[in-house]
């Protein structure tokens, strides 16, 4: 590539990346990603859901993949999990408008259950196929803090052996950014078995995000 960045990962036979923009920019990559055929997920998705936030954002939150609401809206974290994230960010003292939110995978993977579309975890090859876009976002933004939301994002970006339950809320040494933190995905809070469990999980999630808030304050 002309800017000296690494070439995109090679997609599996029968798949291909769209033509990449001449100049690296978030709008340029967003437009290119809209035509991505590097794996099969585009076939059943409504659209590519690229990251969202200001070019000046120094904090990037990375989730797993868009959900049903995000697939329809074309925006990340606007469904039920997004509302949990918004509530936790506010409680931790983080202004969502100042951060960038994205996903490791940009298409919604789902299976049909009656009239509903149920989330399915993306596979390793699908995560790898989408790594081009995530790497591009991080390269352009050059964040000071990267927050991995859930196991899929953490294992894709930190280590395949990473365990969020053991390492959540801790600072992790990584070339991704000066500060890297992992925590649960907000959707996991919605899956808690009762209200008391949800409240407990939410308190723990907010505590993790307060670590991020302190990093933001320290880095200016």
For this entry, give a set of tags.
220 residues, alpha/beta, Uracil-DNA Glycosylase, subunit E, 4-stranded parallel sheet, two-stranded antiparallel ribbon, 8 helices, 6 strands, 12% strand, disordered N terminus
Brief rundown of the structure:
The protein is an alpha/beta fold and 220 residues long.
Structure description:
It is a single chain. By secondary structure, this protein is of the alpha/beta class. It has one domain (26-219): Uracil-DNA Glycosylase, subunit E (3-Layer(aba) Sandwich). Helices cover 39% and strands 12% of the residues. The protein has helices at residues 26-33, 68-73, 80-92, 124-141, 151-157, 164-167, 186-190, 195-219, and strands spanning 59-63, 100-103, 110-113, 116-119, 145-149, 179-183. It has a four-stranded parallel β-sheet with strand order 2-1-5-6, with helices on both faces. Strands 3-4 form a two-stranded antiparallel ribbon. Strand 3 and strand 4 (116-119) form a beta hairpin. Helix 1 packs antiparallel against helix 4 and helix 3 crosses helix 8. Residues 1-6 have low confidence and may be disordered.
For the secondary structure, the number of strands is 6
Q: What are the segments in which pLDDT stays under 50 over at least 5 consecutive residues?
A: 1-6
Helical percentage: 25-40%
- Write down the Rg: 17 Å
Distance between the termini: 33 Å
Structural class: alpha/beta
Strand coverage percent = 5-15%
Strands in their spatial order, largest beta sheet:
2-1-5-6
> What fold name stands as the CATH topology?
Uracil-DNA Glycosylase, subunit E
């Amino acid at each position: 590539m002309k800017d000296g960045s690494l070439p995109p990962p090679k997609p599996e036979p029968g798949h291909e990346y769209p033509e990449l923009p001449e100049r690296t920019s978030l709008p340029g990559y967003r437009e290119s990603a809209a035509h991505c055929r590097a794996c099969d997920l585009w076939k059943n998705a409504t659209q590519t859901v690229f990251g969202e936030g200001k070019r000046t954002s120094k904090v990037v939150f990375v989730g797993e993949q868009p959900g049903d609401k995000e697939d329809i809206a074309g925006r990340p974290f606007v469904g039920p999990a997004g509302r949990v994230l918004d509530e936790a960010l506010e409680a931790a003292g983080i202004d969502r408008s100042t951060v960038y939110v994205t996903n490791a995978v940009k298409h919604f993977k789902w299976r049909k259950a009656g009239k509903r579309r149920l989330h399915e975890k993306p596979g390793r090859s699908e995560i790898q196929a989408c790594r081009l876009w995530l790497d591009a976002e991080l390269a352009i933004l050059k964040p000071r803090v990267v927050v991995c939301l859930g196991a899929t994002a953490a294992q894709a970006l930190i280590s395949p052996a990473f365990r969020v339950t053991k390492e959540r809320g801790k600072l992790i040494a990584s070339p991704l950014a000066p500060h890297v933190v992992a925590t649960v995905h907000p959707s996991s809070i919605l899956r808690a078995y009762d209200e008391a469990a949800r409240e407990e999980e939410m308190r723990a999630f907010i505590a993790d995000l307060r670590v991020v808030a302190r990093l933001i304050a320290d880095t200016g």
